[in-house]
Design brief:
The chain has helices at about 15-25, 40-60, 70-75, 80-105, 110, 125-135, 145-160, 165-170, 185; strands at about 115-120, 175. By secondary structure, it is mainly α. The protein has one domain (about 35-185). The protein has a two-stranded antiparallel ribbon with strand order 1-2. It is elongated.
Length: about 190
């Protein structure tokens, strides 16, 4: 028997069916018992996050941040104001997603809806992963491009059994209901 390959293989970290599906479809594994967040819940949390950041910027700039989306100003000789406000808007969102991710393992919108971001194995997302994830989400803020990327990513979330967007796959994260994660995966979530 030592010369032959064993017909039985041992899979750790879940059921055999889960391991087969994960291998066949080339998707990340999911922590046992985790309930994955739907596209609708993820979309609503994103809208809440954008509303929070935009509202704070709007109050602190006395409404001037709206110039980031002012098409007339973009086409005028003073377009540099729009460029500056667009840079402030994008940087603020990136910082918001990065800082809330590091502090809470989720954004405030995700916290309100009871979902959290963890690595595909259920462990804590690293600082570098939060950087990449926050930068990738900026695509959803760019006018016109956001429609294409947003619809595409929502479709990908719906199609995959892991409910992962392409951004999740690149970074190696999943978005799940925080209460459904195993206790070891929840200890860092605030």
């Amino acid at each position: 028997m030592g010369d032959h390959d064993s017909p039985i293989s041992i899979h750790s970290g879940g059921t055999l069916a889960k391991a087969i599906v994960s291998q066949e479809q080339d998707h990340w594994s999911v922590p046992e018992g985790a309930i994955l967040a739907s596209w609708a819940r993820r979309l609503v949390s994103f809208v809440i996050d954008v509303t929070i950041v935009y509202s704070v910027l709007n109050l602190t700039s006395r409404g001037m941040v709206a110039n980031a989306l002012n098409v007339t100003l973009w086409t005028s000789s003073e377009f540099h104001y729009s460029v500056a406000f667009a840079a402030i808007l994008l940087t603020s969102h990136w910082l918001y997603w990065r800082v809330t991710g590091l502090m809470f393992s989720r954004s405030l919108g995700q916290k309100l809806l009871g979902i959290a971001v963890v690595k595909d194995d259920g462990s804590t997302v690293t600082s570098k992963m939060w950087d990449r994830r926050a930068a990738g989400k900026l695509l959803y803020l760019l006018p016109v491009l956001n429609l294409y990327f947003g619809i595409y990513e929502l479709a990908r979330i719906s199609q995959r059994h892991t409910h992962q967007s392409d951004l999740d796959l690149r970074v190696g994260t999943i978005v799940a209901h925080s209460a459904s994660l195993p206790p070891g995966s929840r200890r860092h979530i605030k």
